[in-house]
## 1
Amino acid sequence: MQFYSRKWIKPEDLNPNGSLFGGKLLSWIDEEAAIFAMCQLGKEKHLVTKFMSEINFVSSAKQGDIIEMGVEVVSLGRSSITMRAEVRNKLNKATIISIDTMVFVSLGADGKPKPHGVTQMADSDL
C-alpha cells in the first residue's frame, strides 16, 4: 500500500476528548479514496461512494501528530472500483484506522451506474 497524503492534526480537528474526531478522519479518507479512484480510472470524474465496510479504529491521534493516508485497489467491476484504506501515524507507523472495503461507482448523466471502461489495472496498481 502506498501512502499518498499527510495531515497535521490541529486543534480544530479534535473532539472534546482531545483526540482526532472520527468524523473528520472519515471525511479525509473518503476524499483521498475518491481522488485516488479518479486517478486510477483516468478520465472518469463522476464517482460516488457506494459502500464502506466495517471501520476499525485501532488507535487515536493527538494534536501535533502527523498522519498519512494510504489506499490501494482491490478489484475492478464494470462500473465500480473497490479499494482498501489505512491511516497511520507517520512517525511510529501505528495504524489509526483501517477500512477493508470501499466501493466507488461511476455514474452517468442520469445518475445511474455506467461502465468506466477500465478492465484491468497495471500490476503495480493492484
Note: Residues 22-40 form the longest helix (19 residues).
## 2
Amino acid sequence: MNHEIVPKSVGTHDGSFHADEVTACSLLLLYKLIDKDKIIRTRDPEALARCEYVCDVGGDL
C-alpha cells in the first residue's frame, strides 16, 4: 500500500456533513492550502493517513 502523503489534500469523515468540517474545508480552500478535488470523505484510517490535512474524524489518528 502506498503511504505517501497526497499534497493539498484533506480527509474528513464520510456520511452527513456538518458545519465544522464544511468550515474547515472552506478555509483550507480559501487559503489555497487544498484542492477541491482532493477532499477525501472516509473513515478509513489508511486513506486518512495519506492526507496532508485531516479534520473532524474524532481524534482517531
Note: The radius of gyration is 11 Å.
## 3
Amino acid sequence: MLEILRNLTRRKLRTALTVLGITIGVLALTTMGSLAEKSNSLIDGGVHYFRDHVSVAAASNGGFGGILTIDKAKDVLKVDGVQAACADTGSNVKTDLDLSFNFGPGDQVIAEQPGCQQYSTFKFSYAGGHAIDDYGSGQLVLGSDIAREYKKKVGDSMELPQPPKKFNPDFVGHQFTIVGILEKTLTAPDSFAIVSFRDGQMLFGDSLPSALKGHVDATQLATGINVYGKPGVDLDTLANRINDQVAGVRAIPPSTLVKAFETASVVLTGITTGSALLALVIGGLSVINTMLMAVTERVREIGLKKAVGARTRHILVEFITEATIIGAIGGAIGLLVGWALTTVVNAGLTSNNQAELFLLTLRLVGLAVAFAVGLGALAGVIPALRAARLDPVTALRHQ
C-alpha cells in the first residue's frame, strides 16, 4: 500500500488533475441527484396524497379552477359510490407576489370540513403538539418546512396571511396560536398551515378581490371538494360519474394526477442519469489517461518486478488499486463539496422563507461513493491489463 501511495505522488499535478476530474463528475452527480431526490420525494408523496380521493373544483371555461359553494359538496354526496364529500379552502400564506422558485404550490393555508380526515389514508403524525379543534377558531398546525422557515414552535403565535412588505390599506391579518407541528412528510403537507374550516373560509374571504368583498358570503364558499369513495369503488369511474351528474364542477380522476407525477419522476430520474454519465465520461477518461501514462513511465519497473517473480495478477492488482484509490479520493472530495454546496443553498433558501431545494439522502451518498470507487476500478482495468501483459525482457530493454 505504501508503494501504491508513493506511485500516486510521483506526478502530483497529474494525479491532482485526475482527482479533480472525478470530483467534478461526482459533484454533478451529488447536486443534480439531490435535486432529483427532493423532487421525487415530493412526487412520491403527492401520489400517496392524491390517490385515495377524487379532487373536485369549479369548472371554468372548460378548465379547472374558480370558486365553489359548499352546497356543491351536498350534490356530489348524492352521486352513487360517494362515501364522503368534504369541501375545503386554500389560500396563500404570503400576501406578496412570490417570485422564488418552489416545488409545488408553495406555502398554503389549508382547511377542510370537520370529520373528513378519517376517510384519508394519508395520516398526519405530530412532531409536537396536537391537531386543531375542527370546530374551534384561532388554532394552527404547521408543516415541518413552514415551521422551520418562520422559526415557529408549539405555543408561538403567527399572523395569517403574512403581512406585506409594503403598506397595503386593504390588508387584514389574523393571529393564530400554533398547537401542533407535523412530522416531515417530504411532500406537500410540509408547507401547509392547517386551520379549522371556519377560519379557512374567513381567510379565503379576506383574499377575495375588493369587487367581491361584501357581495358574497365567505361562509358559503370553498375552493375544492375532496371526494372519498365507498370501499371497492373505482375512483376513476367515480370521477367520471361526478362529471356526468353534477353541473358546474370538474372532477379529476386520481390516475390522471398519478400519471402526471410519474411522468415528472421519469424526467427527474433522467437528470440523475445524465449526471452519472457526465461523471463517467469526465472521470473515466481522466483515470484511464493517468494510468496509461503511469504504465508508459514505469515499463522498466514493471519488467523488473516480473523478472523477480511478480505474477500477472500482482501487476493487475497494483494498477487497479491505484486507480480505485484515485476514484475514492475524487469521490470523497466531490461528495463533501456537493454536501457543503447543497447545505449552504438550502440554508440560504430557508433563511429567506423559501423551501429547501436539495435532499441528500443516504441512498444518494451510497450511490456517489460506489460510483466513484467503481469508476476508478473499471477505468484502471485497461491500463492494468496493458501493464500485466508486458514481456519482462522487452520491458527491461525499454529506454
Note: Residues 4 and 322 are 6 Å apart (CA to CA).
## 4
Amino acid sequence: MKETYNAFDEDKVKEEIWNKVKEINKTMPAYKYIREIIVTQEELIKTTTQKVKRHEEIKKVL
C-alpha cells in the first residue's frame, strides 16, 4: 500500500481499499456487495487447511 498508493496511515489505507470495493460493488448484484472491511497488521487465525476462522476473528475484533 505504501509504494503503490502512498497510503501510510490506517485511515488512508481504508480509504483506498473502499475506493476499490466501490468499483467492484458496481459490477455485482446487491446481495453480494462488500459491506464491511477490517484492516489489521496481525496474522489471521486459520484452520489446518488454511481457511480463515471468521467467527474467531470477529470475536477477537469485538
Note: The chain has a mean pLDDT of 87.
